[in-house]
Fold this protein.
Amino acid sequence: MFRQLDSDVWFLDKPFKMMGIDIGGRMTVVRLADGTLLVVSPVALTPEDRAELDRLGAVRHIVAPNLMHHLYVGDLKKGYPDAKLYVPPGLTDKRKDLAPDGVLSDAPPAGLQGDFEQHLVAGMPGLQEVVFFHKKSRTLIQTDLAFNLTQMPSLIGRILFRLNGALGGVRATKVLRSLIKDRAATRASIEKILAWDFDRMIVTHGDVVRQGAKAELQAAYQFLLSKS
């Protein structure tokens, strides 16, 4: 079932395993000013999910937000052939079955400029994550830039994700940190994102941050922002 964050923002949660532990995955849907829908980081949809999505509006934009979260974009594109598909740089090298309508950068694609600002995070060529700021709802939509795992049912899960620095709130995980190849470039990207006027944050793994998200993200990246 889709859950509503704002009058024009919804998300749908599905199981997602990392290191054999289900940490949950999340698809985000935004209704644009023209009434059509943007879908970020698609998940596998049941017929019931599809019917609920159709009630929200017409899907016209589909985004694979980084090189890790792309498994279901092709399926969604087949279901909505009139929608535009956008992917991060380098994804078509991994997914030669995809025929995207555009490659994401710092400039929002046509039809999204009035609703969003976006940024391709620099310094992490193995991730190539694009982060979105929905101006109307003051919501940041990011994928793997930070987790927000506040609890973990299994003991082994708690051990593994504490070792990964991923448990206990908004965190830039150790795996994520290992992907940073140019600290100065990534720092500049985080500073650019933090300059946006967001208060909420949708994460793909963990709890949605419903208020105070900017301070949470800034704290998660203090290791980089301190310039030490």
